[in-house]
Amino acid sequence: MNLNSIPAFQDNYIWVLSEDDGRCLIVDPGEAAPVLRAISDNHWQPEAILLTHHHNDHVGGVKELLRHFPDIVVYGPEETRDKGVTHLVTQGDRLTILGAKFSVFSSPGHTLGHLCYFSFPYLFCGDTMFSGGCGRLFEGTADQMYESFCKINALPEDTIICCAHEYTLTNIKFALSILPEDRELNEYYLKVKELRAKNQKTLPTTLKNERRINIFLRTQDPDLAAVINQETKLLQPNARFAWLRSKKDNF
């Protein structure tokens, strides 16, 4: 399968998996117009849509796409019931789409019913993980988001992580505010800064890369623990995760 990304709004990416014969799967179409253009330009034949959560910038284009392609199967969590879903899915479900097998797992934090979809090597994680960061806690708790990150971190290191937003530069700036001397972060910051200066994408990323540069995956890092201990002694990684998320909220 071929992985494609469609820019939407200011910083969203709508992901599309396509086969050489034109059949395709669309993930989180927040608006229909750019998807319809891409379908026309590439002669795609959409067969299914995956929804990770209920926010409008991820589901806003579904009903318009269904008007054009009424046979599309739309998978999503309970919280997307009124967003055009035809098949509700939940933790532990298995789907076969375009001949590929997808596993569904819950990833609460950003929203309570947030789901991720994994078909090696692709992970569609919505607003759970971003390159260098994690989603805001609009409905869930830091502990829930930490557990969601643990699920993602248990996947193979060559997993291709398809995040929904281009937040990488800001996330790395935040990480450097915590660990300003970190070599990996400084090197990655220069790379990302150069890409964004050319208006090029920083996504998708890989889990191997995120383990190096995503500070929210490094809650057992001794250097990070030392920084946190200057303010408060937090022995558990989930507590450090919550501390980081709180700091990021005010960054």
UniProtKB/TrEMBL annotation:
Claim: Metal-binding is one of the keywords in the record: yes
Superkingdom as given in the UniProt entry: Bacteria
Cofactor(s) in the UniProt record: Zn(2+)
Positions contributing to Zn(2+) 1 binding: 53, 55, 110, 127
Gene Ontology MF terms in the entry: hydroxyacylglutathione hydrolase activity; metal ion binding
InterPro entries attached to this UniProt entry: Clx_II_MBL, Glyoxalase_II_hydrolase, HAGH_C, Hydroxyacylglutathione_Hdrlase, Metallo-B-lactamas, RibonucZ/Hydroxyglut_hydro
Enzyme class: hydrolase
Catalytic activity, EC: 3.1.2.6
Pfam family, one: Lactamase_B
Chain positions recorded as Zn(2+) 2 binding sites: 57-58, 127, 165
PANTHER family for this protein: HYDROXYACYLGLUTATHIONE HYDROLASE, HYDROXYACYLGLUTATHIONE HYDROLASE GLOB
Known role: Thiolesterase that catalyzes the hydrolysis of S-D-lactoyl-glutathione to form glutathione and D-lactic acid.
HAMAP family recorded: Glyoxalase_2
Quaternary state and interactors: Monomer.
Protein name per its UniProtKB record: Hydroxyacylglutathione hydrolase
Source organism of the structure: Phytobacter massiliensis
